[in-house]
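Record type: monomer structure entry
Structure origin: computed from sequence
Chain ID: A
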Amino acid sequence: MKKISVGILGATGMVGQRFITLLKDHPWFQVVVVAASPRSAGKSYREAVGDRWLLQESIPNGVKNLTVLAVENDMQKIAKQVSFVFSALDMEKEEIRNIENNYAALGIPVVSNNSAHRWTDDVPMIIPEINPQHLELIKIQQKNRGWKSGFIVVKPNCSIQSYVPQLAALMQYNPQKIVVTTLQAVSGAGKTLNTWPEMQENVIPYIGGEEEKSEKEPLKIWGKIQNGKIVASQYPHISATCIRVPVNDGHMASVSVSFKNKPISAKQIIQAWKEFDPLKHLHLPSAPSPFITYFEQDNRPQTRLDRDLGNGMGISAGRLREDEILDYKFIGLSHNTIRGAAGGAILTAELLKAKRYL
């Protein structure tokens, strides 16, 4: 099968680097364009990244000698070489919105890791296993904007990947109230422990904007298309606290939840998690199997041991127990730069291909 040509916007940053490593041997997609700021343009990718390569895996041979193009100045040139682009831009939101709009207007689908378009009315925000039906908004988006083949799809914030899948598997029980505390890795800020020495032996109890995203984005994912846009769900009510902790990768969540439909047993919850695999029939290359792994041991999941489940795309849960204030509480874990960022966007692109949007 001939592979689909892909470009990466913001290719020199941490998320861009993760896109490049995850796409190295992808069976459907091939990176043919890497794009970044004008100061990197004209250099080989290896030269442009230099000592800013942050991942343990080395730069893939197929990419390191590609000439970096300028995201904006070379837009027409890029559009002629690719079938779609992944956006990992690190700029002001208004700039990102304009750039992504311009690529889509040129007929290039944009699968974005950025937050700039997450609350744009006609842009779907996708976790493939949870709300693939929201891709129906693409046709509305194209009609609204006069785009024929271009469109924009975004993925949600990395923090919610650690607990929203487990709750999505339990929607038949109508979760009503959720109190969540996320313990988030430094790579979520585009850094490592080596490049952020202030984080070593330290915990920071605030991440700007993260709590609002954690409380509101799940409601758009659980929303419905009405009158040409997503109307956010009214439930569950979510209260979030987001904390930065000194680990390189992996976001953990401590979750308490109440349900409207009762009674519900721990056995029913665990069974629902184990059976929740809605993409299985599509055989997408990046989809983990199982989607959610439940650990019976009291000391699991652990960040270092379990963040790489399913090649970093799996979601884990553990420590399910009754809660004296709400109904149940549990621990969740996801890999923030794979499932929560580049890998989640790649899985979304695979879903788009399977649904014939690419």
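Annotation 1: The mean pLDDT is 97.
Annotation 2: Residues 33 and 325 are 52 Å apart (CA to CA).
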